[in-house]
Input
Amino acid sequence: MRVGELSRRSGVSVPSIKYYLREGMLPAGERTGPNQADYGEDHVRRLRLVRALLDVGGLSVAAAKEVLAAVDGEVSLYEALGAAQDALVSVPEGAEDEASSTARARVDDLVARRGWSVTEENPGRRAAADVLAAYTRLGWPQFGEAIDDYAEAMEQLARREVESVLASGSDDGRERAVEGAVTGTVLGGSLLLALRVMAQADASARLLGEDGTDKSAADR
Amino acid sequence: MRVGELSRRSGVSVPSIKYYLREGMLPAGERTGPNQADYGEDHVRRLRLVRALLDVGGLSVAAAKEVLAAVDGEVSLYEALGAAQDALVSVPEGAEDEASSTARARVDDLVARRGWSVTEENPGRRAAADVLAAYTRLGWPQFGEAIDDYAEAMEQLARREVESVLASGSDDGRERAVEGAVTGTVLGGSLLLALRVMAQADASARLLGEDGTDKSAADR
DNA sequence: CTCTATGGATAGTCCTACTATCCGTTGTTG
DNA sequence: CAACAACGGATAGTAGGACTATCCATAGAG
Output
């Protein structure tokens, strides 16, 4: 098929397809002439993945590019998962002060306490420490105390997620498995946040009531 | 203090401070003359909150504005929590097809199953359904099956988060309590994702090994 | 055999989040 | 008390991100 049909099939405008081609996020079609090319089902699938990463996963084009490079590259599942994880956390480079070094130490402690095998450069360390530092600077240090609960919950989920990826992709070839790993990692993050929003709405309705009164004692 | 010192104290450039003032995210200082104004500790605190929402929470200026409007407005804790939750999930308005209506039904089922008190318009519903629909369209419907695990984990955490906010803010006045609710909701989301990244890195190292071989059977 | 579609290149647009400039005071310091 | 940086306020400019439009020579469809 040519670009017009690819556009119809995928719901992506022709100029956008050309843009993704230029950016290297979508492989070029098979050339059938000096100015003609042929696209296949793979291209439709890839386009859908691109849109999912951008729209649902909320990645920037630059981050999506990195992720897709991992899908296409000759990397292991492990490395591809790492690439997807890296794309999810941005590191805005704030100033180093006391709050941030204390926070960093607290994160290091947590990782040690849980026995997590996480490299020194894992962006999650920085990102988690940034949040703890912000809590402190804003005068809510107690919010950081829940970090073990968060970590426990994430450990459970992460194990199941990785198992699910392993169970799914093993028989369709490396590329498809990597695609699944990336999809699950990126979109899973959005799913998690969406469910958290609903769970919080429920919890606040339950504990506070729509009128804003504290019901936390009365309800139990 | 005047704007120069405010800038030094908060680490935000003077032009940026002026920008936030224009946008109404930072209240004007107290006027001491036709072209002089005085800022206080509240302004320093507010600036830190603004930067935390933008840098750590990853909100856009527009979203941060909404959240801050809730902090400043005469709204209940419950409503402020809702505003913060809404700011966290973007709804990119994709086309409605079969995958998305099925997904929507699955989310509605989940909410009913868990007995969550969540309005019909809660953006989390749309966002969660979008993820499920994307899984289906990309050929990974099985990833959606973990949604109950996610929901269970989020329910636990959300309850603790809301309790923590209630325990913290009750004696410092409404505004401070609302500030805490908003801070915890927005930054807590970033913390969750950061920990998930590390937990996944650990899980993939454990189940896959750095070399990319599947160790899932051998390890247990 | 015309006329729309195509691939490829280049330029233009819109949005966001700031920055920079200008201007007529004001505060401050030598 | 003079000079000069700092101020507040308004307006304009900018950099980056994610497309979108235009142009052109050729190709395929009716």
Q: What stands out?
A: Chain B is about 65% helix and 5% strand. Chain B has a mean pLDDT of 91. Residues 2, 13, 15-16, 18-19, 33-36, 54, 60-62 of chain B lie near DNA strand C (CB under 10 Å from a C1').
